[in-house]
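#structure-requests
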Amino acid sequence: MSTGLWVTLSYRDADAGLAWLKAVGFTERAVYRDDADPAVVQHAELAWPEGGGVMLGTHQPRPQWPDQAGTGSAYAVTDDVDGTYTAALAAGGSSLREPADQDYGGRSCVVRDPEGNLWSFGSYQGEG
């Protein structure tokens, strides 16, 4: 399967990020670690069941890519908003908005992962 869009995040604790993402439904496709320090994740890829994916790694300051750990946000489409919300909280996430039906259609919720990234999970797939 080819994925045309990837969310990219960095984590201070990439292993904890990987565990949380897998607990909410992502599937690990690849994890590459630093040979000198296996605790450092150089690059990881996780696929979302409905399409798309996340790439992540251990945060390391890089002038050419000035991201900050714990400041990302993403929206993931799911048919099971309530189940994903429950899994996200059970895995250590915190609730910002409980699952609710939306005026524009669908149902959604918002959680913060243990690192601080914001995740919206919803059934709305966009127009078209």
